[in-house]
Specification:
heterodimer; A: 300 residues; alpha/beta; Ubiquitin-like (UB roll); Rossmann fold; 3 domains; 3-stranded mixed beta sheet; 8 helices; rod-shaped; B: 443 residues; alpha+beta; Dna Ligase, domain 1; Nucleotidyltransferase, domain 5; 5-stranded mixed beta sheet; 14 helices; 18 strands; transmembrane (chain A)
Chain lengths: 300, 443
């Protein structure tokens, strides 16, 4: 019988033809490799798994993660702090000196600062919190200038309340506190609780009463429902709750026709539209007393 | 019998699983070559009623891988050296897989040896309710009296060939017919168990599942007989390397198969002995210069035999083609005589048409058809297998008849006995017997 084992092939010997048959192992490996699932797993699954393992292994260390974060932050900062992006100046337009000072004091920005760090919307909200500012516009101008354009509120009346004297604009919004009435003699005075909500109405009444404007000391919001016009010489015009302006016009008409307020009367009561009533003053001393009382009310 | 029934059924299930996966390998284990094809089943369109379709029903599959290797360890179509055969199978399967770029797990194999023997079986039953149902077909097949084919034999094919109801015979499909008695003829092909076990073991060692087994005589008949030959009666003679398969077809059924244990390798060994040359040289001389009819011209045609022993006289030998033919012809005649004897024993001369088709690698000897006509009868032609999609040009020759036939077998197997359900009355009989046995054992 011929030897069962294959003849030993010596190195470099070409005479013997090699067995073309694959070994069982090679056969199995090739079959495994031709299995579609296995192929997909080897071509996609293994590289993906390898990448995950390598990256995961690298990032498993706390220090390395921190170093990567730091280098990113450093890169970000270096870009942000380039001179092209730095804001060095703040220009405020349209604001009076005290308002501008207040804005500078309020803004939580220390210049120079990178324009990436400026939250213009938040800054604008901060500026608009100031009562004297109606609206504000912010933008970063070329040359690193933070341009703030402010529209201030225009005071329309003075409102005397329990705490003191406030300046209000035409909508009744507070503008500033005034220490002294004489600082703004051009503005009319209103008084009474809740009068700040009715500034528009008060201004209308004042406009209607312009013919006797030089005699008006102010308006009083009575009982939170109606207006009184207080004149000098302790005279009052009591206006109705509804349609006060026609009532004022009627009083003005009476005054022009009859010189009503030149006479000795204390009050003109227009509350009942059908029955205007005039209260006459007593003689002499009583007029003095009334004057003292009225002075307290109007604050002068 | 039931074991075989079960194992064949298991193979059929395996085949169905392979169809579902869409890829199946065809393995033809021959004496001179082992061929492996990888088939892909694509559009599994519904088979038509007559079993035909576009391209005669072969458009279902496509050959996507093909490989051939020189066979080793196979003699007379049977496995001789298991390890060698296993290696050769591995070579072929791996190459075919590589070409197909896919993995195959199911294999349908055929072989030419293992001493096939044919039996004609007949069975008859009374029909209970007039009309024939599928259950009745199973019953009549089960009623066929199986001859005693001896120890160590196993059934490879069991084709129902003919059905008869009362006196009407020649029915192809008896279902739905009305009658009193149903009779069936069945063709049974048995083979040596040991030989087939060896082959199965070799295939198992290659991690492949068997999805079907066929006799190569049968499948080469499927591939190389045209339809009218199969219908009218013809014999296909598959002249392989170590064995010559022989199958007779009529009415599209195989009714006889046999194998003669002689083939082209014997011609080669005769040349080798006669001319004193190695087998490889003898094979080359046979394929290039061989023939079976000597003419005057052949006396002058000198063939360089050659050798490399160093002796000038021996290395410069020449032989005339006539001499070569003189060596080959007696052996070819012997093969054909053997075939003739088998055909006579099978009663081939009783068939209405006696067409003989020669195929297989050894049928390519020039002049063989004339010699066969003298021995076997006048109606002889050389057959080549059908063309199937994707088959490489190198595998379309006569040597690949059984390989191609196996493809057709894989795509459209004929109904065999085990494709019918086990008759219902067999179950209770067996369980009753088991119950009786239990009683006897325990009381």
């Amino acid at each position: 019988m011929r030897p069962l084992r294959a003849p030993e092939v010596r190195h470099g010997e070409h005479g013997l033809r090699r067995d073309p048959a694959p070994s069982r192992l090679a056969f199995r490996i090739e079959r495994l490799w031709l299995t579609p699932m296995f192929r997909v797993a080897m071509r996609v699954g293994v590289p993906v798994a390898l990448c995950v393992v390598v990256v995961g292994g690298y990032l498993a260390n706390e220090g390395r993660r921190a170093a990567i974060g730091e280098s990113f932050a450093e890169l970000r900062r270096s870009i942000e702090e380039r001179p092209e992006f730095m804001v060095t100046l703040m220009a405020i337009d349209g604001a009076s000196e005290p308002v501008a000072k207040a804005i500078r004091a309020m803004l939580p920005v220390t210049l120079p600062v990178s324009s990436f760090r400026l939250d213009l919307a938040a800054l604008r909200a901060t500026i608009e919190q100031i009562d004297a500012v109606a609206s504000a516009e912010l933008h970063v101008r070329k040359g690193g200038v933070l341009q703030i354009t402010v529209v201030e509120r225009q005071p329309a009346v003075l409102w005397r309340n329990a705490t003191g004297l406030e300046m209000l604009d035409a909508t009744g919004h507070r503008v500033a506190t005034l220490l002294d009435r004489t600082a703004r003699p051009d503005l009319p005075v209103i008084a009474g609780m809740g009068a700040d909500d009715r500034v528009g109405e008060a201004l209308e009444i004042l406009r209607a009463a312009r013919p006797i404007g030089d005699r008006i000391r102010g308006l009083v919001w009575m009982g939170e429902r109606r207006w009184d016009i207080v004149l000098d010489r302790d005279q009052r015009i009591l206006l109705p709750e509804e349609a006060p302006v026609p009532a004022v016009q009627r009083v003005i008409a009476l005054d022009e026709a009859e010189d009503m307020f030149g006479r000795a009367l204390v009050a003109v009561d227009m509350r009942n539209r059908n029955r205007p009533t005039v209260r006459l003053a007593a003689m002499g001393t009583e007029t003095e007393n009334l004057t003292g009382l009225e002075t307290k009310v109007t604050g002068q | 019998m039931t074991d075989l029934y079960q194992s064949q059924r298991a193979m059929r299930h395996m085949r169905r699983a392979a169809m579902q996966r869409g890829v199946v390998a065809i393995l033809d284990v021959g004496t001179s070559k082992i061929a492996c094809l990888v088939l892909r089943f694509e559009n599994t369109e519904e088979a038509r009623e007559d079993g035909l379709g576009s391209l005669a029903g072969q458009s279902q599959f496509r050959v996507i891988g093909a490989a051939t290797t020189r066979s080793r360890g196979v003699r007379f179509g049977e496995v001789d050296a298991m390890a060698e055969t296993e290696r050769a199978i591995r070579t072929a399967v791996q190459a075919a897989q590589k070409m197909a770029q896919t993995r195959v797990d199911h294999v349908i194999a055929c072989f030419s040896g293992a001493r096939p023997r044919s039996y004609g079986l007949a069975g008859e039953i009374e029909l209970a309710d007039g009309q024939v149902s599928e259950q009745d077909v199973a019953r009549v097949l089960a009623a066929c009296d199986v001859p005693d084919f001896g120890q160590g034999r196993e059934v490879l094919h069991a084709h129902p060939v003919n059905f008869a109801i009362d006196h009407r015979s020649g029915l192809r499909d008896p279902r739905g017919h009305v009658g009193n008695r149903l009779a069936a003829d069945m063709h049974l092909l048995t083979i040596d168990t040991n030989a087939v076990q060896n082959l199965l073991y070799c295939i198992k060692r290659c991690d492949l599942e068997i999805a079907g087994l066929a006799s190569s005589a049968y499948v080469s008949g499927l591939a190389s007989l045209v339809e009218d030959e199969q219908e009218l009666g013809a014999a296909c003679i598959d002249m392989g390397g170590g064995a010559t398969g022989l199958s007779i077809f009529i009415k599209k059924h195989m009714i006889f198969a046999e194998s003669v244990r002689l083939g082209g390798d014997h011609v080669t060994s005769d040349i080798s002995k006669g001319l004193q040359v190695p087998l490889a040289t003898a094979e080359r001389i046979k394929t290039i210069h061989g023939g079976v009819h000597a003419t005057g011209m052949d006396d002058r045609e000198m063939i360089e035999i050659g050798a490399d022993c160093g002796d000038w006289e021996k290395d410069r030998r020449q032989v005339s083609r006539t001499e070569l033919i003189g060596i080959m012809r007696p052996r070819v005649e012997e093969i054909l005589e053997e075939v003739r004897a088998v055909l006579d024993a099978a009663g081939f001369d009783q068939l209405p048409s006696q067409q003989i088709v020669l195929t297989g690698g050894a049928s390519q000897i020039p002049g063989l058809d004339m010699l066969a006509a003298k021995i076997l009868g006048q109606n002889v032609r050389l057959g080549r297998p059908l063309r199937v999609q994707g088959l490489p040009q190198a595998a379309t020759g006569a040597a690949f008849a059984s390989t191609v036939g196996l493809c057709l077998f894989a795509a459209h197997p004929q109904d065999e006995w085990w494709d019918f359900e086990i008759p219902a009355e067999r179950y209770p009989a067996r369980s009753l017997r088991r119950a009786m046995k239990w009683f006897k054992d325990n009381w």
